[in-house]
Amino acid sequence: MFALLAVRSRYGAARLLSCSSCSALQQIQVQQQQQQQIQQQGQAFHSSSSSSIDSSSSEDDHKFVGAYTPVTKQLWLDRLRKAEQQQHQAAGAAAGVLAGTEVQPAAAKAPQVTRVDYPFTKDKFLLEMYRNPWGFLRMGRLLEDLDSLAGSIAFAHCQVPGLPPPLLVTAAVDAIEYQHPAVLSADMACQGQVVYTGGSSLDIRMELLQEPHAPSPSLVALFSFVLLDPATKRPAKVPQVQPVTPQEQRWAAERAAVAAARKAARKAAQGKPQLSAEQQQLLQEALSASRLLLDMPALADPSALTAEETSLSNAFVCQPQQRNMHGRIFGGFLMRRAFELAFASTYLFAGSRPAFVRVEDITFRNPVDVGSLLRFKSHVVHVSYHPAPAAAAAAPAEGTAAGTASAESAQPAAAAATEEQQQQPQQQRVAHVAVEVEAVVSQPEQKETTHTNTFRYVFAVKLAPGQALRRVLPASEADVERLIRCLADCE
After folding, report:
1. What is the sign of the dihedral through the CA atoms of 163, 169, 171 and 176?
2. CATH architecture of the domain formed by 1-8+24-271
3. What angle do CA 443, 445, 446 make, to 5 degrees?
4. Which of 34, 50, 115, 181 is 20 to 30 A from 408, comparing alpha carbons?
5. Where is the segment annotated Disordered (predicted)?
6. Is the Cα torsion angle 416, 417, 419, 423 positive or negative in sign?
């Protein structure tokens, strides 16, 4: 069963708010009151019992004021309407319970496919929303949409007649990986469904579809959500998914095997990642080279540098226009900002424009509130080398798979790459650069910091024959932990 969401791109009417001048103390009090109102409004997004919303009215445009993509905004409006309808049903069910009618428990559900379309060839405004400076797909914007779509899929699955709207939080992003390059010269669609359910968690699989590769996906993403009880904010039991098709059964078996393997690994290693013998040797070599670099730098490898020397950071105050439906900062926004910092770090480290390959892991430890002072810090963790694909002669761009070009130039680039590889068959290769970004909320008044998120992205950099990037070595305990996590997640 398909639930098709039409995406319409248009600007809402802007409203200007003004306030009288006040003293510094009054300003602080006003800001605190506004933050409380924002949080209350976010809760209203989740539990409002007002009438359903017509997405064509101007009243809808102020519901989510911010730099959201048209896809994300439409998904949220659709989810808001469903939440309002369910709130009415829950109120009716509560009256029925008082009258002696019991609410039925959640039954197993067959997967429901939800799809959003990107009509780039017909909607030029939509095209500009997703175009990066080099004319390719802006990956950061797509990350926002994937988070919104996964949340809508999880919401629809966890809806139970007679109960309040479900409260869901993003637990992790297990993987996002390109299979084929995505271009802006053809329409695109993204669809997904629940593929596995645990006790209180559920896994969402999404695919990006675009000609000429469809029905083979151009990108595959796996998100994990946790269902919380709206009253206690404790994990709640999710309705179980009941796979129907052989493909759905395979996906469910794969995710069940992954969940069992992770549980066994955590138990065996007591929470520490396990490394293979080859990875252990790689780690020991890196530690030995790092000690030489720190103790006797004049005798160390001149191409080596510490992970801290590759670091970039930025800090900003989280604004109300960046919040999600629940009044907290939107997880897709955090993913985009971390991606853009990781991209810049790779660009400066490699000296040429990198291409997105995959997301290896994203964890959400703590929510981020409006008004939080949020700091992002990136480190290049590991560099590995791989044979260059056939189209590697084209300059890679942010938002595309390694060495891919636009649809117009793909065939000439592939031909040039083939000819060059025939001349230098063993020298063409690309470097995969793994970058980890950590997000920390600082509270200067309390002199406290809270680690909220960890993001790890992998980018590809095309190398000239015989070229190699500088070797990155761990120089602190935190660097070693990052390298271990990265190696443990390597295929």
Report:
1. positive
2. Roll (3.10)
3. 70
4. 115
5. 39-62, 402-427
6. positive
